[in-house]
Recover the amino acids of this structure.
């Protein structure tokens, strides 16, 4: 009885399910006729290549190709000679002598920067802006032309296509010379060395042609206005050649030669009342002459070429070890204003830096250097000048975007060139500088200038004002 009942129930259930399935089939069929057949899903359509070919590459929106970054760089400085005032002041001295940007004691700002670049595909460009006290030092010669905040500004083109070996840049460019750069996060040490500030240019304005026929070999040609001048001080041009050699991740070498006139081809002579300017004689007495300023031609200035040979050797024998060598030899025929005699003046120097990075968070770097300026031209001392520096840097990357660098540095000279207190002088200067940098871009390992491209009022007494380079190019 129970078995027959179970059979009846199963049969009833099967008939009910069959009716429901039939109804669902009819409903689905009706719906299918009422609506158009669906196409493939967007994902499947994007993944499926067209018949007989491959899927076309999706073009990246043009605005996403811009590379934008920013940073802020400040420091706290302590000079153990306690010069006063705390920062270099015209007519009063003060601050740290023979330094590039770390010239003040106490809390100070190096500068803040914004960088914007568009890759050359085949046309592109780069703009670098800097704001702060160091922008006035870096651009001492350009401030009169509204360029005191512009570190770089140039157009780029790749005539052989975006993947070609040839790149042409035109505009204001960082120099390819030297082992250190203006932005602290690109260096082993926080403070710049004497070679960087006195023996090498900072920037050039003109044409740069880069050709990289092989991954191990690169060539750079330059035709520019000169050293640290967007608007040239003469009618001549400076030309340069750089050869780069690379040996994988272990070695990189850069040999650079620059030559061209750097002395102004005009000068202003001031004659007192009762005197007048006479060519080849200067101001001579002339009754009734009003005196005043006279613009005169400096004969031969465009033929007195400055020469500079710069060598940078960059070794990375192990992942945590880096050795950086830099050497410079420079010179030029020099004729002081008002003199008819020309003499050859020169300068030379070298630096050696070692960096040890035991972890990703911490590193230590040691730099030693020497600079000889026999005629006191580049250092603006007017005397035989020998400078030596030794710097120990401890670096800590607190986060991926925050870097702290502590420099302990000693400078020595062959004369009492450093200020001590208010009026005393010394042959030695010892400082501790704590630098802090926040950047939106994770700082890359420091490289020489060639890889990345990749000043001053008259001294007061024996103290060298920091804007030295502007003066040298305007004598």
């Amino acid at each position: 009885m129970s078995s027959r009942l179970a059979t009846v129930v199963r049969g009833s259930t099967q008939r009910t399910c069959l009716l429901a399935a039939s109804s669902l089939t009819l409903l689905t069929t009706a719906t299918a006729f009422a609506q158009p057949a669906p196409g493939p899903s967007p994902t499947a359509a994007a993944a499926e290549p067209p018949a007989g070919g491959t899927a076309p590459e999706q073009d990246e929106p043009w605005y996403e190709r811009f590379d934008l970054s920013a940073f802020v760089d400040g420091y706290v400085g302590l000079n153990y000679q306690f010069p006063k005032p705390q920062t270099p002041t015209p007519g009063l001295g003060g601050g740290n002598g023979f330094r590039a940007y770390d010239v003040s004691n106490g809390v100070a700002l190096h500068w803040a920067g914004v960088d914007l670049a568009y890759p050359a595909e085949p046309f592109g460009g780069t703009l670098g802006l800097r704001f702060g006290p160091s922008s006035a030092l870096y651009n001492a010669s350009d401030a009169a032309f509204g360029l005191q905040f512009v570190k770089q500004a140039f157009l780029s083109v790749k005539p052989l296509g975006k993947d070609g070996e040839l790149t042409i840049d035109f505009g204001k460019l960082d120099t390819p010379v030297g082992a250190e750069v203006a932005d602290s996060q690109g260096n082993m040490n926080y403070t710049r060395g004497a070679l960087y500030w006195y023996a090498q240019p900072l920037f050039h304005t003109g044409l740069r042609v880069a050709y990289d026929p092989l991954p191990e070999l690169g060539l750079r040609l330059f035709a520019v206005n000169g050293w640290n001048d967007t608007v040239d001080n003469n009618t001549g041009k400076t030309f340069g050649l750089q050869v780069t050699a690379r040996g994988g991740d272990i070695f990189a070498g850069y040999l650079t030669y620059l030559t061209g006139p750097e002395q102004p081809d005009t000068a202003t002579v001031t004659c007192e009342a009762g005197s007048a300017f006479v060519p080849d004689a200067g101001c001579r007495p002339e009754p009734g002459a009003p005196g005043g300023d006279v613009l005169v031609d400096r004969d031969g200035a465009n033929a007195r070429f400055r020469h500079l040979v710069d060598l940078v050797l960059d070794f990375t024998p192990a992942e945590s070890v880096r050795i950086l060598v830099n050497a410079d030899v420079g010179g030029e025929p020099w004729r002081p204003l008002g003199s008819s005699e020309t003499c050859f003046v020169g300068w030379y120097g070298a630096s050696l830096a070692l960096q040890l990075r035991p972890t990703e968070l911490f590193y230590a770097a040691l730099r030693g250097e020497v600079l000889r300026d026999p005629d006191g031209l580049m250092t603006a001392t007017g005397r035989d000048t020998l400078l030596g520096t030794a710097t120990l840097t401890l670096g800590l990357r607190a986060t991926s975007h925050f870097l702290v660098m502590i420099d302990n540095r000693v400078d020595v000279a062959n004369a009492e060139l450093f200020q001590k207190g208010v009026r005393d002088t010394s042959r030695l200067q010892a400082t501790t500088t704590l630098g802090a940098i926040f950047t939106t871009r994770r700082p890359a390992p420091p490289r020489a200038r060639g890889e990345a491209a990749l000043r001053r009022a008259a001294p007061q007494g024996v103290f060298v004002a920091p804007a030295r380079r502007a003066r040298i190019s305007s004598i």
